[in-house]
Amino acid sequence: xxxxPLSLTSLCxxxxxxxxxxxxxxxxxxxxxxxxxxxVLQDKIDHLxxxxxxxxxxxxxxxxxxxxxxxSVKDGRRAVxxxxxxxxxxxxxxxxxxxxxxxxxxxxFSTRPYSKSADGVQMLDVxxxxxxxxxxxxxxxxxFEITYDEHEWDxxxxxxxxxxxxxxxxxxxxxxxxxxxxxxxxxxxNMVVKLHEDVRRKIIWSEISYFSKxxxxxxxxxxxxxxxxxxxx
Length: 233
What we know:
Largest sheet: none
Helix content: 40-55%
Order of helices and strands: HHHHHHH
Number of strands: 0
Structural class: mainly alpha
Strand content: under 5%
Distance between the termini: 109 Å
Number of helices: 7
């Protein structure tokens, strides 16, 4: 008869221990496996982006080295062909200054009356005057029909001039420096190589902020390649 109180006490002790463990488990923060997987995936993506930027920088350095070696070989051949076997250091002639012709009328445009901005124009009032109906203009969607004679060039072939045009928007999707490091500088470096391969090629570059940053970072040899050619627009 004395065994029953002891058994009841043991059962109560076991119950309270299990209850305590359940309370501790319920208070622990829940673990979301998908959140951990996304974090690992994001780290891998960031690592790949850093590797890509480093590889682009290495390729740029290799390309610049090849350009320098090619120019040095060509300069050596010119010296041999001209019979210039003089000893001692050669004196570098100063490069002629870069002169850009400017029409005098361009400097006077801002002083003319019709170039002044109109005062008192409220854009909110202009919005009320615009229709915003976006009429269908055909192929180009500009509100007017574009037509042409499809047989106009049957007898004489049409000459097509393809001119590359830059489109590097500062601050678009990336910061100014990130865009320049990842994309713009490689475009400009490759441009120097391609223009040197064919003197008939030309390029239009409009983003002066990027061009100025690139110009400040390149060496004198690459600058000389750009200054000697009229392929920039």
